[in-house]
Amino acid sequence: MRSADLADWIRHAAELVTADAGRLSRLDADIGDGDHGHNLDRGFRAAVGALPGGDVPPGKVLIAAGRAIVSKTGGASGPLYGTALRRAGKALGDAGEVDAAALGAALRAALDGVRELGKAERGDKTMVDALGPAADAYDAALADGSDLAGCVRAAAEAAAKGAEETVPMQARKGRASYLGARSVGHLDPGAASTALILGALADVTGEG
Amino acid sequence: MVGIVIISHSRTLADGVAEVARAMGVGQAVVEPAGGDSEGGLGTSIDLAEAAVAAADGGDGVVLLADLGSSVLTARTLIEDAERDDLLLADAPLVEGAVAAASMAATGADLATVHAAAESAFEHRKTR
């Protein structure tokens, strides 16, 4: 993957977030404050606007997108997704091309950044419940000899499955945690958007 | 003097907490609010928070107080980005922590002491 591919991912993710903003906000209205989809839409639109032109290293694309998301999103998803993208970008360093191993390390760095910032662990009913399984599935696919597109596909599928598995969980982070047992039975909106965004990456890498 | 920054989802709430804290800081404490999103609605803005830190920063460090959720994540992100060791987030209730920090800052105490004062606010219970 090169810079243009990661920029394509951010643009495609922004399109999917825009298309799904209503659903994500409705999920958030069930157990949160009802703004997740619209906040993330604002953040990803800003990320698209901040994509650097010219031949910059791929890592810089993610750092620029992450910074815009931190700045413009307006809710908890801003620092969380912004940190994920910036940590991933830093992990990619100044390399001009991203191979399957490097992308896996970036995904792992994104997960670590989100866990550190949000102090969330798996089972807390957060985006970590999608991002964690995604990083594990990616590494497993890589170890099995999959190419980059195959690893990303495995990660996206694991994220989608992980998001569904938040439904029976009781929230331990964020506004939903104030609801106690009443948070059970709802899909976590942050896990849902994580699955959506990793699905966008699978769409982009699968075209190649 | 150690500066204090109040990060809240609401501009009104941040301004009000800053007003109370300044009064308790006998008019000397430097307390800067960063409330609401960049359009003045409910939310958080790291740009507003960074501007408030710059305004509160007199060279002796800044203690940040945040209300909840994205305010806390914004404060943590701001501190990580700044790569400075003289910005500290207080693990404290917003109003009580701000008042405690402003009271201590007004005495000319150092950053660690002001931060500890803010965190001590948890010990002031209301029903016992």
UniProtKB/TrEMBL annotation, chain A:
Mind listing the GO molecular function terms for this protein?
glycerone kinase activity
Q: Which GO terms describe its cellular component?
A: cytosol
Q: Which gene encodes it?
A: dhaL
Give the GO biological process terms: glycerol catabolic process
Superkingdom, according to UniProt? Bacteria
Protein name (Swiss-Prot/TrEMBL): Dihydroxyacetone kinase subunit L
Q: Which organism is it from?
A: Actinomadura syzygii
Output the SUPFAM superfamilies linked to this UniProt entry: DhaL-like
Task: Fetch the Pfam families from UniProt.
Answer: Dak2
